[in-house]
Automatic annotation (TrEMBL):
GO biological process: methylamine metabolic process
Main location: membrane
Annotated transmembrane regions: 6-25, 46-67, 73-95, 116-138, 150-174
Record protein name field: Methylamine utilization protein MauE
Annotated localization: Membrane
InterPro entries named in the record: Methylamine_util_MauE
């Protein structure tokens, strides 16, 4: 399947920004991220700290590789795999009935409990990452194409931020209306 490069570059840029942002959240509060990772109870205690150090670095490497055309395809597949792994971890803990733990999705400033809607969110993100792995049709890009690409990425990120904000604050909103 060949797709216009605007779609591929815009999706790669959006996923790159998302991963870089996630990595900086984890690097700003490493102890908190290590605790969140431990709360999932999927790793032996001896692997929690090394994994908590490695994951944000992996996210940064993938984010930067998404921005380079020659590495974009493998980086996009790596991003999709990482996002699917996160969804699997969330799914396992939902299956265990552990909805009270912080998913680690909202950064160090805000806790977000596990909910099934996070699986849907990650599925959409996996799809966006997979779109970035597709070989684009070969055509020259002009200044307007660059504007459209950046705008499309910005819109995708704004939609993500708005949805994530609603997800993170929905327990407070439900409490506010008395549910």
């Amino acid at each position: 399947m060949h797709t216009d490069p605007i779609f591929i570059i815009a999706s790669a840029l959006a996923i790159a920004v998302l991963l870089a942002s996630a990595a900086t959240h984890k690097l700003r509060a490493p102890a908190r991220f290590a605790k969140q990772l431990a709360d999932y109870q999927l790793l032996p205690d001896s692997l929690v700290r090394p994994s908590a150090s490695l994951i944000p670095l992996l996210e940064l490497v993938i984010a930067f590789a998404l921005l380079v055309p020659v590495s974009r395809a493998w980086a996009a597949l790596s991003a999709a795999s990482l996002l699917a792994l996160y969804a699997t971890a969330i799914g396992i803990n939902l299956w265990r009935g552990r909805r009270d733990i912080d998913c680690g999705c909202a950064g160090p400033d805000q806790a977000q409990p596990l909910r099934p809607v996070l699986l849907l969110r990650n599925t959409v993100l996996v799809g966006l990452a997979l779109l970035a792995s597709v070989t684009p049709i070969v055509r020259d890009l002009n200044m307007f194409d660059g504007f459209v690409t950046v705008s499309a990425s910005a819109v995708a990120l704004l939609i993500y931020a708005a949805a994530d904000g609603l997800l993170a604050n929905s327990p407070l909103l439900l409490k506010l209306i008395g549910r």
